[in-house]
Write a structure and sequence with these properties.
The chain is α+β, with helices and mostly antiparallel strands. It contains 3 helices and 9 strands. The protein has one domain: Roll (Ubiquitin Conjugating Enzyme). Strand 4 and strand 5 form a beta hairpin.
Amino acid sequence: MDRALSIRILDSHWERTLAQARSLGIETSRDEKDPLLVYVRYCFQSPGDRYLGLLSCEDYDEKPPRLDFANPENPADQGKQWWPKMSQAPVVLENGQTVLCTPGTRGYHEHSSHRGETHPKSVWYLPKVLSVLWKYFHWGDYQGRGIG
């Protein structure tokens, strides 16, 4: 998909994304150098641990965003060690990638168990994906940082 087209589509969804973020109490912004990289910041009230989710939106909205988490102080430092560990969240490690097993993120839709499923594109529009992330942050008890 054309990068410029992905940026235009993301631009057209951005106001709704910001409104959804405000309603959920999630901070979100776009990278200054890469407009297809969306930052999602969340802080657990207790013990005050901060998280930085990354939504890589290459080929948006033809494909869903890719979800990962990063060091809140250094977004280049990414991976399973930065994911929040939630007691009941459906998260798996697949070929070195951490996958949240719910529709809306690229890892889910590319996972071998879900390739045959069909979903409307609206499932991975950013406002919806923010709702998925909010649900993840509340999926059971918070158990610290790091998956697997």
